[in-house]
Amino acid sequence: MANARMNNAVAGVEAIIGYAFNDKFLLWEALQAAGSNVSIAGNRMIPNGNKRLAVVGNTVLDLVLVERWYGGGQIRGAFDQVRQRVGCNDNLDNVGVQTGLNTFVNLAGGATAISPSTMATTVEAILAGVYLDGGLQAVMPVMQNLGIA
Hints:
Helix content: 55-70%
Number of helices: 7
Number of strands: 3
Distance between the termini: 32 Å
Order of helices and strands: HHEEEHHHHH
Shape: globular
Strand order of the largest sheet: 1-2
């Protein structure tokens, strides 16, 4: 591990989400807001903070939601409503703040507060990290632990 700050952040987030990463650098990358002073996580370059991971996380979130929807036999409109309610920035920001994930985000230089969109991006990036580290089955309990239904 890189340093004490990384170790503390990774351990804190792992405790919140209830998942222990095999590749701790995936989680460290997920905690980097765009413009943070960290540009490398392990052997991966992270040119724009956690934004690349967030793209994966958004897709993983949709996949988990669509699997639940499909299994429930509901109409298409029901899925769209769930996706809009659960995957919106407001909800993901609330999840991040209510669970305390916001205290572990490494912000851009000079920033003192985390914006709602940055928090939502970070939650998506964490979900992506879990997915890349442990697969789709690892993501579902993490979403439950975070209250993302």
